[in-house]
Design a protein that fits this description.
Blueprint: H1 36-49, H2 54-66, H3 70-83, H4 101-118
Helix pairs in contact: 1-2, 2-3, 2-4
Length: 121
Amino acid sequence: MLLPEGASLASIEIAPPCLNPVEPVGGWRTEATTTVRDVAVTLLKAVDLNTEIPDVYSGLAMAYSNKGDRQGASRWVAEFRKRATGFKGIESDAPSPASPPAYLKYYYDRFLPEWKKAGLP
């Protein structure tokens, strides 16, 4: 980079392209519906990058359970349990009653039943 005489540079940022993005095959599409496969692929990429985040394992357990793979779900439940030390169960982590109504509906109608179906604590 060349600067003219008397000019100064306050800062510079160099950002390399992301070589291993954590996203579904084909990337994120704003108008597309996310599938169980999209979620599973994305979470598998995330677990490759950081193996200690318990939420990745609970998400994988639910994704495998939703596609009917009980053995796969059990594997990820076991990994979740290894990393979620001190977790007292999903009921102790319930959203506040003051949360937005749409979130409460999603949590109780979709998330919580899928959590339990997967065999998560």
